[in-house]
Amino acid sequence: MIAQFRSIILTLIVLVSANVSATGNTNDVVRQWQQWPIVGQATLSWLWLDIYSSQLRSPDGKYKLEGDISPHPVALEIRYLRDISSTQLLEATEEQWQKQGFSDEKITTWMPKLTTIFPSVKTGEKLIYVTDGTEGEFVYISNAGEQKVVGTIDDESLNDAFLAIWLSPKTEYQTLRQQLLGMNR
């Protein structure tokens, strides 16, 4: 009787855990990254126009400089300071990858995935990329504070390439990189 009771309890725990994973993932991820200390922050401006403000967070508030762009969990939060269409986000991403020397073959492989993920954003809205170092999730936060996961990345090369736009030594925006990595404290 006790063995049957334990079996039922274990089955219920597994079912409840699976259900929480499937339905509560967004809140778990959002809660987790929002508690991490800020490594650094920066604002991207073009001429006199502010495009977005950004923050990099990690569990210990530090970014470890290594050959791997994302050697540990990080969250890159981008708060848009202007309306930007998903097409503009995709074009800017592709342009940055080309400038960093990623192959056309890789870019062609990655772009369809991001096409299904990137939303158009309004001034004040946020797009956050939270990664464990190999894969990650994009979390969108509307101006009303609604949060939802809009896509996931399970390809480590795409994970690193996306973060490379801001964190790579090859980035076009070196000052922004240094500020995000906390080098200008």
TrEMBL record:
Residues 1-22 form the signal peptide. Residues 45-182 form the Chalcone isomerase domain. It comes from the Bacteria. Keywords: Signal. The keyword Signal applies. InterPro entries: Chalcone_isomerase. This is Chalcone isomerase domain-containing protein. It comes from Vibrio diazotrophicus.
